Amino acid sequence: MRNYAMKNIRNIALVGSSNAGKTTVIEQILFNNKMTTRVGKINDGNTALDFDADEIERKMSLMTSIAYVDIKDIRINLADSPGYGDFIGDQIAVAQAVETVMIVTNAAAGFEVGLERAIDLLDGTSATKAILVNKMDLENADYFKVLDTLRENAGISAAPILIPIGKENTFKGVVDVVKGKAFVDGKYTDIPAEAKDDYEKAVASLMESVAETDEDLLNSYLENGELSPEDIQKGLQKALSEGQIVPAFCCSATTNVGVDALVDAMIEYLPSPESKGTMKVLKDDKADNIVCKPDGEVYAYVFKSLVDPNMGEIAYVRVFSGTIKSGLDIFIPERDSKDKVSSMYYFIGKNRNDASELRAGEIGGLVKLKVAKGLNTIVSQGSKISHLPVKLPTPVFWQSIRAVNQNDEDKIGQALAKLLSEDPTINSSMNTETHENVIAGIGEQQVALVQKRLRSRYKVEADIKSPRIPYKETITGKSDHKYRHKKQSGGKGQYGEVYFRISPMERGEGFKFINSIVGGTIPSNFIPAIEKGLNETMEKGIIAGYNVVDICVDVYFGSYHDVDSSEMAFKIASSMCLKEGFNMAKPILLEPIYLVDIIIPNEYLGDVMGDISTRRGKIQGMEQIGKKQILKATMPLAELFGYYPNLKSLTQGRGLFEQKFSHYEKLPEEIAKGIIESYHSPEE
Ligand SMILES: Nc1nc2c(ncn2[C@@H]2O[C@H](COP(=O)(O)OP(=O)(O)OP(=O)(O)O)[C@@H](O)[C@H]2O)c(=O)[nH]1
Ligand SMILES: [Mg+2]
Fold first, then answer.
1. Which element (helix H / strand E) includes 163?
2. How many A from CA of 23 to the centre of ligand 2?
3. Which of 143, 214, 219, 673 is 20 to 30 A off residue 553, Cα-Cα?
4. Residue nearest to atom 2 of ligand 1 (CA)
5. CB of 135 closer than 6 A to ligand 1?
6. What does the alpha-carbon distance between residue 624 and residue 600 come to, in Å, rounded to a whole number?
7. Residue 24 Cα, ligand 1 centroid: separation in angstroms?
8. Closest ligand 1 atom to Cα of 43
9. Which ligand is closest to the CA of 43, given by its number?
10. Cross-strand bridge partners of residue 365
């Protein structure tokens, strides 16, 4: 297939809340432009873009997929991302790969949670933002109301470029405000009387917005009281490529009204890779710019990687600079590894067409890359350039996972690694204290999908449950204790005696071992065995099976036997002495405490604060940003595990939080008592 010049490409990612109609809009565009032979329907499970079995089953997108549309000498690349909150990582990643991020909203819905989230997460991307109000055919659909809500809630003042003709089930066309023409039944015509008023208002406000972005245009506007259509078009294109204006469009995907006019507008007004021109990158870890051109240095970005059951690894890439060819040796700075390009394709969902090479400005898929995964940079070997780091949300949902069948333990590790590499917001790690494999991610659906795919793709049944809390054990008092290990049961006996002074240390200091033996009461060759006995016991735990920390053990006296003493005997003596001495030194349990930043709309402040204190949280501070409050608090991990579902229900889905580990703190006695008792009477 042919390549397209940078100025003839439009790269557009559709984001926004679930169910707004992103996938359906793209399906309709593909069909209208003869890229597919039928209009894929979500309900029939036959869309080009939601091709994955789980997407078909759930009737929603679960990952980013890509398509392209060729119209005359223009190629439009469209990325369809999942709107459901648990899969937000894909929206964040794809927003970095395009010139325009189109935020799709439902014309009949209010300011939806998914929409709010998508907008928040786009903060900081350099892409131009655009608004597409879809579902204009629905009862109560109201284009201008949606734009007002966006202004009020998100501070986005969108400039209407396409405005509707007719309403709800009589929505029959759109007016292109820049052209001053209506688009009805597949043709441009004069603006009908019913849309004249809206058009006059929209064009006046568009002139004002465009004039404000450029001094010459402003002067001309002030002089003449208006701008010519040519001036509006030129000014708009420039303002859009600089991201100074957020254009708004409308359509109904299912009735196919306004979709062709939308595509025309994408071509005529939205920025091309050439109009953006340069790209901010890191070079040698410092901020830098590179000029994007096909004969420049190779610089591409992977915005999604997946393992296709038939094709193997696929990495969807955006080439920003240079040209990627088969056989090219590449370097992935984020992984500090080399890789090699094999074949590459242009994709429409899972259908692919050969690409001979991928040039600056283009989007395509590289197959069988070994190391490059989502959010990674692709550069030539020896290059010092990498993509600016992308901020991802911290995990807010945790589950421990293990294979139901013991024989699958090895298999599950590899299968998990493959599945998790498809989504940058989820990871798993072995907790060496609780000996659990813990998955940390964004939500229940995300983890449930991993569990389901382990079964469907890798035939591994996995159990998930709430993880154990890595409590720790320590003491608050001191003890002075001795223990003699002596056994005489025929043959060689066992003998070793130690005297310990056990004392608490500051939080976080760990363990200190002091050897104060003088005069050889214990020969020095047995000292390492004593230390080993201590370490092993501390790792296993004494009162409740958790790591022992922040204690100091001073061995200051003991005795031995010429024949019967051995390393084993001293190890046992040491272990027993610690166990008994520890119990005499007012032992307690410590629990991990996390710092959380909870971000909520003002109206939920009271409820959320009340709830934090019932969860043993402590408010540390508060900050107002726009219409939101950021509550800073500490919260025990035991409460944090179940916090996100709870926060969502308290705030109608609008609350978010970020977390990081802070410190260990004494677990309240009444809770500790239960944990210690159940450790000593293990009926599970
Ligand atoms: N009435 C009406 N329904 C629509 C329109 N566009 C999409 N739908 C329906 O809305 C539902 C959701 O559409 P999708 O295309 O899956 O929405 P999405 O934004 O891709 O959703 P996610 O993949 O979950 O992010 C489907 O049942 C569509 O048929 C429209 O313009 N009008
Ligand atoms: Mg979708």
1. strand 162-165
2. 4
3. 673
4. 135
5. yes
6. 10
7. 5
8. 27
9. 1
10. 316, 345
Element (H, E) at 628: strand 628-636
CB distance 17 to ligand 1 below 6 Å: no
* Closest ligand relative to 58 C-alpha: 1
User: Rounded to 5 degrees, what angle do the CA atoms 659, 662, 664 make?
Assistant: 130
The rounded distance, in Å, linking the Cα atoms of 276 and 518 is 76
19 lines ligand 1 (CB under 6 A): yes
CB of 81 closer than 6 angstroms to any ligand 1 atom? no
Q: Report yes or no: 585 and 502 within 8 Å, Cβ to Cβ.
A: yes
C-alpha dist (Å) from residue 559 to 280, 563, 568, 571: 70, 13, 15, 13
Asked if residue 563 and residue 532 are part of one domain, the reply reads: yes
If 0-12 CB within 10 Å is exposed, 13-18 middle and 19+ buried, where does residue 643 land? buried
CA of 106 to the centre of ligand 1 (A): 9
* Residue whose CA lies nearest to ligand 1 atom number 6: 21
Protein residue whose Cα sits closest to atom 14 of ligand 1: 21
Task: Kindly state if the Cβ of 60 falls inside 6 Å of ligand 1.
Answer: yes
Q: What does the DSSP assignment read for 117-162? A: HHHHHHTT--SEEEEEEE-TTSTT--HHHHHHHHHHHH---EEESE
DSSP state of 17: S
Q: Residue 255 is which amino acid? A: T
Inter-axis angle of helices 259-269 and 229-241, nearest 10: 80
Task: For residue 407, give both structure tokens.
Answer: 């024989």
CATH code, domain with 581: 3.30.230.10
pTM of this prediction?
Answer: 0.89
pLDDT in tens, 595-640: 999 999 999 999 999 999 999 999 999 998 878 899 999 999 999 9
CATH of the domain at 381: 2.40.30.10
Task: Give me the pLDDT at residue 2, please.
Answer: 85
d(CA 530, CA 207): 83
Range of the structural domain that residue 334 is part of: 279-386
Q: What is the pLDDT of residues 72-89, one digit of tens each?
A: 899 999 999 999 989 999
Q: Is 376 in the pocket of ligand 1 (CB under 6 A)?
A: no
Residue in the block written with tokens 């984001």: 15
Q: Does ligand 1 lie within 6 Å of residue 43's CB atom? A: yes
Both 524 and 600 in a single domain? no
Query: Does 64 share its domain with 193?
Result: yes
- Do 311 and 360 fall into the same domain? yes
Considering only residues 137 and 276, tell me which one the structure prediction assigns the higher pLDDT: 137
